[in-house]
Write a structure and sequence with these properties.
By secondary structure, the protein is an alpha/beta fold. Helix content is 21%, strand content 28%.
């Protein structure tokens, strides 16, 4: 109640297309004139947005927070983690684009930090993680694995190896930083949908070809 949110799938088409994007928003009874998007530079910058940012793509950021009703916050992905944040008490929402660089830079934690500055209590915040490439399919070299071990320590299930090499589960360090920020585990919903395994239904930067590639959209909006 009081919230509209969702993630597009392949059947809605490539969200880089204005027509496809319009259709997806229409299904959710939303309008593009209220949508705010991010440049998504794989960084750790988070911004509070308001009415002035409607219809804009905010440069240099990978996270947004707002308490303005009617604004639609959007995050585009095709393997990275699309994360939605909702404080039902303080009526504050947020989104984050979390690729491996952003996760190392603790982008999800920085969204929580900004929500706290706006009045949220971490134990009130609800979080949804949409489709992303899972540890089953996200191969990593020794250098990248070492970066995650250096930043987060040897978290259980974060890194594993098989005959093909090393694999990294990006959700593990993401969940770790959210819990460290004070969000209860039971407040976090992880879709655990792998964009590579379920490529028939979701776009994947790694799995798709140039001909089949597209981007998906995660959105969240406070609605009276």
């Amino acid at each position: 109640k009081g919230l509209i949110h969702g993630f597009s799938s392949r059947k809605f088409g490539d969200m880089r297309s204005n027509k496809k994007l319009d259709n997806f928003l229409h299904v959710l009874n939303l309008q593009k004139k209220n949508l705010v998007l991010m440049e998504q530079v794989h960084g750790d910058k988070v911004k509070v947005v308001d009415e002035d940012e409607k219809r804009k793509v905010i440069p240099g950021i990978d996270g947004m927070v707002t308490n303005t009703f009617g604004i639609v916050l959007g995050v585009k992905t095709a393997d990275c983690l699309p994360i939605l944040f909702y404080d039902p008490i303080g009526k504050i929402i947020g989104v984050a684009h979390a690729g491996w660089r952003g996760i190392l830079a603790r982008i999800a934690q920085k969204v929580i930090d900004l929500m706290i500055k706006m009045g949220s209590v971490p134990s009130d915040i609800l979080i949804g993680i949409g489709p992303y490439i899972g540890g089953c399919c996200y191969s990593a070299d020794n250098q990248r694995a070492g970066q995650f071990l250096g930043e987060f320590g040897d978290l259980p299930s974060m890194i594993y190896s098989n005959q093909k090499g090393l694999y990294l589960d990006l959700a593990v360090p993401t969940l770790n930083q959210l819990v460290q920020s004070g969000v209860p585990k039971e407040n976090i919903f992880n879709s655990q949908i792998c964009t590579s395994c379920q490529n028939k239904d979701f776009f994947s930067y790694r799995k798709d070809s140039k001909k089949t590639y597209g981007e998906m959209l995660g959105i969240i909006s406070l609605n009276i």
